[in-house]
Amino acid sequence: MFLTTRAVVLHQTQYNDRYGIVHCYTRESGRMNFLVPKPVSAGGRRRAPSQWVQMQPLAEVELTSELKPRRELHYIKELRVLNAHIRIGASGIKTSIGIFLSELLYRILTIGEADIAVYEYLCSSFDVLERETDSRAVANFHLCFMFHLLPLLGVEPEVNFLQKESVDYWFDLREGVFLPGCPFHNEALPPEEAEYVKLFSRIRFDNMRLFRLNRIQRARILDILILYYRLHLPPFGSLHSPEILKGIYDSRA
């Protein structure tokens, strides 16, 4: 059986000297992993770009693959790049964001059924990141992306409790709700940090340039979001790229 589908490249990992594994989220079948040959030299002669080179993280491609029962790694018969998102790789800050999102999505979009809404959100979001030129908007992009991905994953926090009387409320990260006092565990935000939840109930891609956050605030919000993901989407595993993000933003952004 052959499958032709659009796919977003999530991550690349090594397999052996000749092959690598490209992890994708496909529109038709959800998470799929492909065994892809690595580039090889041909006596100095030019060769067409290999599938490995074409399938860089966050690229959108169209591929045809033969599906065989009980096989976890598939081969690609035909490949066409729809959007390589070259401008993301041409910017230092956008590249760092791309590395982080690649690792994050590799961890949370595990093998399962396709979700077209998730797929379309990934594609439209990466298009926004590629086009965005405002430095503050770019600096806030990954936070906005993570927050608005949560409803699509079925783990949206309760953000409608925004009445004036909620000013002194805690936010329970385990349950995703506001509380009038500290819960009986440590995975909760005190009132001053619970304000971040209210803040991100208002942020969108079209207004994220308006949110003034310094480096310390962005780093703290990122830690909170990663903890929320870890609590609600196990097994989450460890991430290595957040530290890169925390050091790239000037506090004036």
From TrEMBL:
InterPro entries: ARFGAP/RecO, DNA_rep/recomb_RecO_N, NA-bd_OB-fold, RecO, RecO_C
Name of the protein in question: DNA repair protein RecO
Gene3D superfamilies, per database record: Nucleic acid-binding proteins (2.40.50.140), Recombination protein O, C-terminal domain (1.20.1440.120)
GO biological process: DNA recombination; double-strand break repair
Residue intervals of the DNA replication/recombination mediator RecO N-terminal domain: 1-83
Keyword DNA damage appears in the UniProt entry: yes
Source organism: Porphyromonas macacae
Family per record: Belongs to the RecO family.
Source taxon at top rank: Bacteria
Cellular-component GO terms for this entry: bacterial nucleoid
Pfam families per UniProt: RecO_C, RecO_N
Keyword list, A-Z: DNA damage, DNA recombination, DNA repair
